[in-house]
Specification:
By secondary structure, the chain is α/β, with parallel strands linked by helices. It has 8 helices and 7 strands. The chain has a 7-stranded mixed β-sheet with strand order 3-2-1-4-5-7-6, sandwiched between helices. It comes from Friedmanniella luteola.
């Protein structure tokens, strides 16, 4: 689906700005990651599936508020989204690389990630990944001991009510709004389908443990997305 993301890239920031809570939810996910990373000094983070850079901005802001220096590598499969991200103003230490999440292990050197990192954020990524177990193992291998993964993702497979609410919001609000904004609806029709096809919450928790992570925690958000949008936090085992 990278082409659908490329197609929607010029209007993507406008669309997500109209999503109540979108940036606040990213901020909460970034803060959850920073709160769990034990490294006191400069941090090396990866924003896997960084899109147009909203999640990258959330990481930079959370680190700044925490008084910690940070270097962030954003990786995304959509060149159009990366073009949008690169046009924004960033502090030193932020860079963007083009590639699939499935490429992480094979292309770590190309991405400048030969060494271990302290944390990985993956917001709205894993429903787009076919080889989820493999990518989770690759992320686990990328993390330093006690490194932290935070995944933010929609999941409705566990609840008929959540599935119904998701479908109503998509077809009555999101898809019509995408037509009014850009005359492009393909990405948002895919969004509806991909969320409905994604893992149940417990299934994804099991994947995290199967990939070697420990201390898996799950939370949801308030408002209409309660029980639909979930934040998963997990750790690579270390000294703690």
């Amino acid at each position: 689906m990278p082409l659908a993301f490329d197609e929607a890239a010029p209007s993507y920031d406008t669309m997500v700005a109209r999503n109540p809570g979108y940036h606040a939810h990213l901020a909460t996910a970034a803060e959850a990651l920073l709160a769990a990373v034990p490294t006191p000094g400069p941090l090396r983070l990866v924003d896997l599936g960084c899109g147009s850079g909203a999640s990258t901005r959330a990481l930079v802001t959370a680190a700044r508020q925490d008084g910690r220096a940070v270097a962030v590598t954003g990786v995304d499969a959509s060149s159009g989204m990366l073009d949008e991200a690169r046009e924004k103003s960033w502090p030193a230490g932020v860079r963007f690389e083009h590639g699939l999440a499935q490429d992480l292990a094979a292309r770590r050197g190309e991405f400048g990630l030969a060494g271990a990192v302290d944390g990985v954020l993956a917001a709205y990524l894993f429903r787009n990944v076919t080889e989820r177990d493999e990518v989770l193992r690759d992320v686990h291998d990328l993390l330093a001991p006690d490194g932290v993964l935070v995944v933010q993702e929609y999941s409705v497979a566990h609840s008929r009510a959540a599935d119904l609410i998701w479908s109503l919001v998509c077809w009555l609000v999101v898809i019509p709004l995408s037509w009014l904004t850009s005359r492009q609806t393909r990405l948002y029709r895919y969004l509806w389908r991909s969320v409905r096809g994604f893992d149940a919450v417990q299934t994804f928790v099991d994947r995290l443990y199967g990939a070697g992570f420990v201390d898996v925690e799950v939370s949801t958000v308030p408002g209409w997305q309660r029980g639909i949008l979930h934040t998963f936090r997990a750790r690579r085992a270390g000294d703690r």
